[in-house]
Design goal:
- By secondary structure, this protein is of the alpha/beta class.
- The chain folds into 2 domains: 214 residues, Rossmann fold (3-Layer(aba) Sandwich); 109 residues, Formyl transferase, C-terminal domain (Methionyl-tRNA Fmet Formyltransferase, Chain A, domain 2, Roll), CATH 3.10.25.
- It contains 9 helices and 16 strands.
- The strands form 3 sheets. Strands 3-2-1-4-5-7-8 form a 7-stranded mixed β-sheet. Strands 10, 11, 12, 13, 14, 15 and 16 form a 7-stranded antiparallel β-sheet that branches.
- Strand 10 and strand 11 form a beta hairpin.
Length: 349
């Protein structure tokens, strides 16, 4: 916050406006509602439009707010004059922000006496951005955690008030890790609020080192495409990291037929190397579908052919006739073509 905004502060129970949308924020929200502090309202993202005029499911944060009969606002932007009018009416001491999906401007932060704090799902300054849990797992990090910052208009760039670390389990996925981090983050938020109660809006905090900043951009659908030229460990990390969306997928590059898109629901990394090229099916023995990588192999345990139900590997092999030596890889359809590659020499009919 600007130096001119620092004020004398007498410790007291705080008037708090919560800002959050996703499930990562819900445990902290419940803890604040059970605290002596006065939680005034929830600001959350507008409901997503649904196909066929179906009603959007209730977000985790809206569900909690309705349970406690708390006022709910979902402005398209928190930084507009209309949103400022709503916030000004609450005369909040503090904004608590977590998994909200909007960046608060300097003018917005000024509407609370102590500004805002944000609970972020990484060890800042690593993984600033929208998908910190996913990218930490994708990169094979052994450790991650949560950070609470005193907010500035710079995305995830404020001074650090509290931090908590945890190892990343070798077999948990991003959904499981995010759930654990949401619980780990509760006490750092409470500790950070206590700092603000004691010190006002100039609490002792650790500045982030710009040289250590890394980014965690939003996930894209194409991030789920499996790159068989990477190692089995890296591919397994990708599969765990991109749950539940975009998931992971590949294409069976069938000779003389249109490639078949396969969504991978479950896989197992294997340490042994195959004597075939990355992306080739190394074995279909005993109902297992094993694919070679650049180091090690991957067993595709459960897969879902495009437009079909999920199948165990053995059922897929029996029904589709895939064999050792067949290839998996990326495929982008070309507009205006039938998308069927020619049969390669020596391919079976």
């Amino acid at each position: 916050m600007p130096a001119a905004f620092f004020i004398a502060w007498e410790a007291k129970m705080l008037r708090i406006v919560m800002m959050g949308t996703g499930p990562f924020a819900a445990p902290t929200f419940r803890r604040l509602l059970a605290s002596p502090h006065n939680v005034l309202a929830l600001l959350t993202q507008p409901p997503r439009a649904m196909r066929g005029n179906r009603q959007a499911p209730l977000s985790p944060m809206r569900a909690v707010a309705e349970e406690f009969d708390l006022p709910i606002h979902w402005p398209e932007s928190v930084n507009t004059p209309e949103s400022h009018e709503i916030l000004r009416a609450y005369a909040a001491d503090l904004f608590v922000v977590c998994d909200y999906g909007q960046i608060l401007s300097a003018d917005t932060l000024m509407l609370a006496k102590l500004g805002g704090i944000n609970l972020h799902g990484s060890l800042l300054p690593k993984y600033r951005g929208a998908a910190p849990v996913n990218w930490a797992m994708y990169n094979g990090d052994a450790e991650t955690g949560v950070t609470v910052i005193h907010m500035t208009p710079k995305l995830d760039g404020g001074p650090i008030l509290a931090i908590a670390k945890t190892p990343i389990d070798a077999d948990e996925d991003a959904v499981e890790l995010e759930e654990r981090l949401s619980l780990i983050g509760i006490e750092p938020v409470i500790d950070s609020i206590a700092l603000l109660e004691k010190h006002g809006n100039n609490p002792p905090g650790q500045l982030q080192d710009p040289a250590l900043v890394t980014k965690a951009r939003r996930l894209r659908k194409e991030d789920g495409d499996l790159p068989w030229a990477r190692t089995a460990a890296e591919i397994y990390n990708q599969h765990r990291a991109f749950q539940p969306w975009p998931g992971t997928y590949t294409h069976w590059l069938r000779d003389g037929a249109e490639p078949l898109r396969l969504i991978v629901k479950r896989m197992t990394p294997l340490a042994s190397d195959a004597r075939v090229a990355p992306g080739q099916v190394a074995s279909t023995d005993e109902g297992r579908l094993v694919v070679a990588t650049a180091g090690g192999q991957i067993a595709l345990d459960e897969i879902q052919p495009a437009g079909k139900r999920v199948m165990q590997a053995a059922e897929f092999l029996n029904g589709y006739g895939l064999r050792a030596g067949d290839r998996f890889g990326s495929f982008e359809p070309l507009p205006g073509t039938d998308n069927i590659p020619p049969a390669s020499p020596g391919s079976r009919a």
